[in-house]
Amino acid sequence: MTNEDLEFFKEKFGGDLSKGMGISYNSFACEEAMLIAGCLETEERIIAFSKKDWNEQKKEVRLLSEDHSGGTFNMSIRLAIMYLPMLKANKRDDKIEIIIKED
Fewer CB within 10 Å, N- or C-terminus of the chain? Predict the structure, then answer.
């Protein structure tokens, strides 16, 4: 997770990832959200994914952790949808960096 990603998620937790269920729980949900968003890339696909059974979910997001409770999974889904604009910005920045290095 980059510093920008960390700041993005901190903002979603009111500036403090240790709120609510605690930093380990919240950080895990954020990391999984980034994974889900990166694999599925659209809100529609994330919502459809969330409704599938576990075996189908693992086929779509192969690195999805088996350590989820229902709560962390649902939080990760919500955070993944929120993270989509950040994901797009990161991809854009990566492309710009590649173009700059080619010149």
Answer: C
With beta carbons less than 8 A apart as the criterion, state whether 61 and 40 touch: yes
Helix, strand counts (H, E) of the chain: 5, 0
Q: Are the CB atoms for 67 and 28 separated by under 8 Å?
A: yes
**Are the C-beta atoms of 63 and 50 separated by less than 8 Å?**
no
Q: In the chain, where are the structural domains located?
A: 3-102
pTM: 0.82
Please list, in sequence order, all residues whose beta carbon lies within 8 angstroms of the beta carbon of residue 92, skipping any fewer than 6 positions away.
Answer: none
pLDDT of 61 higher than 80 = yes
Q: How far apart are CA 62 and CA 32, in angstroms?
A: 12
The pLDDT tens digits of the residues spanning 90-101 come to 666 555 566 667
3-class SS of residue 29:
helix
